[in-house]
Amino acid sequence: MKEINLTENPDVSVIVPVFNNARFIAPTLDSLVKQSYKNFEIIVVNDGSTDESDRVLQHFSFDRRLKVINQAHAGVGDALNTGHSAARGKYITYCAPGNVYYETFLQVMSVTIGITEKQNPPINFVYSDFEFLNPQGRAVQRISHNTTANTKQRLMMSYDIGFSLMYSRELWEQTGPYWGKGAEDYQWAIRAAQYGEFGLVCAVLSGQIIGSATPNDEEAIKECIELAAQLFAVEAESVG
């Protein structure tokens, strides 16, 4: 097998937080190493896994773009923060085990954000439509976003963005780290909406295997909605 060298100056950093996800790691990493876009790094943060995750990760050691960071179990938010601290890319995305990036995901998303972040106002967080997949990887449901709804209003009600996303390092630095509770992506996006605009790529660029996602933390979601109402009072009042 041909060895792929690690890019010294990657444009994109892909963070993969892992905790006892051995069943879903392989399809996720397989989708990443097969990306048409090549100038990126994969940072796997093994958050104290006790299953076969280590063994699965070893199967992808041929790709030198992949770096594994091991840490004691601290939760998804902390694992994401560890990955961001190690990231070198101008643009960042995270791909949880069970999420599958289709072949052109990194290419389309990085080119799009490279254009939109130069607009006025800049769009430095982009997301796309996605699909839910059965265990065999076959699409069973497509999720298409509403292009006319206001992003911040959507955040008032629920997290209507999903997992198929990319944002700039600058936005990450402005927003700060993920919190240590559940719904960490929802809470971070609410805070990020203070500093940038969100843009939708109207194309299905990724999928999620049904059963791979962490169950919703209802108390954390409730806190997120309260935070959104606090930060965006005007929008919150207008949401019926």
Secondary-structure map:
Blueprint lengths: L11 E7 L3 H12 L6 E8 L5 H6 L7 E6 L4 H11 L4 E4 L4 E3 L3 H12 L6 E11 L5 E5 L7 H7 L7 E4 H7 L8 H9 L4 E13 L8 H14 L1 H6 L2
Parallel strand pairs: 1-2, 1-4, 2-3, 6-9
Antiparallel strand pairs: 4-8, 5-9, 6-7, 6-8
Radius of gyration: 17 Å
Mean pLDDT: 90
Structural class, please? alpha/beta
Q: From the coordinates shown, what is the CATH architecture?
A: Alpha-Beta Complex
Give the low-confidence spans.
234-240
Helix segment count?
9
Shape: globular
What is the strand tally?
A: 9
Major sheet description? 9 strands, mixed
CATH class: Alpha Beta
Mind telling me the CATH superfamily name? Spore Coat Polysaccharide Biosynthesis Protein SpsA, Chain A
Distance between the termini: 57 Å
Q: What is the count of structural domains?
A: 1
Q: Helix share of residues?
A: 25-40%
Give helix and strand order, one letter per element, not per position: EHEHEHEEHEEHEHHEHH
Provide the β-strand percentage band. 25-35%
**CATH-defined topology:** Spore Coat Polysaccharide Biosynthesis Protein SpsA, Chain A
Brief write-up:
With 240 residues, the chain is of the alpha/beta class. It is 35% helix and 25% strand.
